[in-house]
Design a protein that fits this description.
Elements lengths: L5 H7 L3 E3 L8 E3 L1 H20 L2 E3 L5 E3 H7 L1 H4 L8 E3 L2 E5 L4 H8 L11 E10 L15 E11 L2 H22 L8 E5 L13 H18 L3 E4 L9 E7 L5 E10 L2 H4 L3 E3 L5 E3 L1 E10 H12 L12 E5 L5 H13 L4 E3 L6 H10 L4 E5 L1 H6 L1 E6 L3 E7 H14 L2
Parallel strand pairs: 3-7, 9-10, 16-17, 16-18
Antiparallel strand pairs: 1-2, 4-6, 5-6, 7-8, 8-15, 9-11, 11-12, 12-15, 13-14, 18-19, 19-20
Helix pairs in contact: 1-9
């Protein structure tokens, strides 16, 4: 399966590379890879906003005190970078956003009328991964996570939000072309009461949280397996598991039930009777780490991305010099319509130009010759559907923009 390995395809298609001078586990996204990254980010923000998420932006570092308050330090310190001393105070590169979002929630009082409050962020995170565990875009030391924390007013509301988060994950996977049972599966990740060093101690809360997630998955009719000792330190979670081309499985997205942080941060809301009540928290990621998701998509499509994700969506191919003027006008129209297009003005034969476009896995080519110039058309060929014939330029633009807009 080497031909589908994202570590091979990524550099070949000029999507990303690892620069050893910059550092291991720190991928560098090239212009084409950055286009895919931005398209995924745009999709996430657009869809989450429709579903009532409030996007925020918080700092990449915070005082060490914040992570002591959350319990990530010392529970998580082996995966965190060493503290940075600034003005006699210690700061950490953040490995997660939940403490930031909880502090933001605490910045003013909140009413039950505001719940559920869905705080979301495309956050740059930093985790110290062992050198032997680093792998392309799947396991890195810096990544962008489509993260969110949902503050709820009741356990019932938290269960509803977990269901909503799973609905979002399944919808997003559908748009990305990933199928449940084929490309991904569910895992219910449980704690271990005997592992008091790893997990927050509250046996009753663990049992209740695990039962809640188990019953929720059973009610959905979703197939899942249970895995002991795979939970977060603050609560059980539902993980979306995917395998790379080498057969290794990783958690792609996750939904977590948290009974620990509301107590640690004293997260409360003003109830209907005017009194403060303890909130409930759900952590979730809609499409996980953008880089890791890109890796799975590169391998699924072998670099031949759907048109909406393709770095170059169309290439214009003039047959000879006499056709370049009209070809450049067609290119201009494509770009003005928001289509990512380019032109091949090399002196190569048409056959070689077409082969090069296929090698680059470009979804559409538009061939321009004498007949096309005289009729204001282009001969359209689809990477996936083959030759579509001579079509008016306006019609081509209409077809492509519809396909891109619908993310089909």
């Amino acid at each position: 399966m080497e031909e589908r390995d994202h570590k091979k395809i990524g550099p070949e298609l000029e999507l990303f590379y690892i620069d050893q001078t910059v550092g291991k586990g720190l991928p560098m996204f090239l212009p084409k890879g950055t286009i895919i990254k931005r398209e995924l980010e745009r999709f996430v923000i657009e869809e989450e906003t429709k579903r009532g998420y409030l996007h925020v932006s918080t700092p990449d570092i915070a005082r060490l005190e914040l992570y002591k308050k959350s319990g990530h330090y010392p529970h998580y310190k082996d995966s965190m970078y060493a503290p940075i001393t600034i003005d006699e105070d210690e700061f950490m590169l953040r490995p997660m956003t939940c403490p930031h979002h909880f502090q933001m929630f605490l910045s003013k009082p909140h009413s039950y009328r505001e719940s559920p409050m869905r705080i979301a962020e495309l956050a740059q995170l930093y985790r110290y991964e062992q050198s032997g565990e680093l792998m392309g875009l799947i396991r890195t030391r810096n990544f962008c996570l489509a993260d969110a924390h949902i503050i709820c007013s009741s356990e019932e509301q938290a269960a509803e939000e977990i269901t909503g988060a799973l609905d979002l994950i399944e919808y997003a996977n559908g748009v990305l072309g990933l199928k449940l049972g084929q490309d991904y599966r569910y895992r219910l990740s449980l704690g271990d009461p005997a592992n008091t060093e790893k997990y927050y101690k509250n046996d009753a809360a663990w049992e209740k949280g695990e039962s809640l997630l188990r019953e929720l998955m059973q009610k959905r009719g979703s197939e899942f397996e249970e895995a002991k000792d795979e939970a977060a330190f603050y609560g059980p979670k539902i993980d979306v598991q995917m395998k790379n081309v080498n057969g290794k499985e990783d958690t792609a997205f996750t939904v977590q039930y948290d009974f620990c942080m509301p107590e640690r941060f004293d997260l409360t809301y003003i109830a209907e009777d005017g009194k403060p009540r303890r909130a409930f928290v759900v952590h979730r990621s809609s499409i996980g780490s953008i880089g890791r998701t890109m890796a799975f998509l590169i391998e699924k499509y072998a670099g031949a991305f759907p048109t909406w994700l393709s770095p170059v969506q169309a290439r214009v191919l003039p047959i000879a010099d006499a056709h370049k003027g009209f070809a450049e006008e067609v290119l201009k129209q494509l770009k003005e319509a928001g289509i990512r297009a380019e032109i091949d003005e090399s002196n190569e034969t048409l056959g070689k130009k077409i082969r090069e476009a296929k090698t680059q896995k470009i979804p559409y080519t538009l061939v321009i010759g004498d007949q096309e110039v005289s009729s204001n058309t282009a001969t359209l060929e689809s990477r996936d559907k083959g030759k579509l014939g001579a079509i008016g330029v306006e019609e081509i633009i209409s077809r492509l923009t519809k396909e891109i807009k619908n993310r089909t």
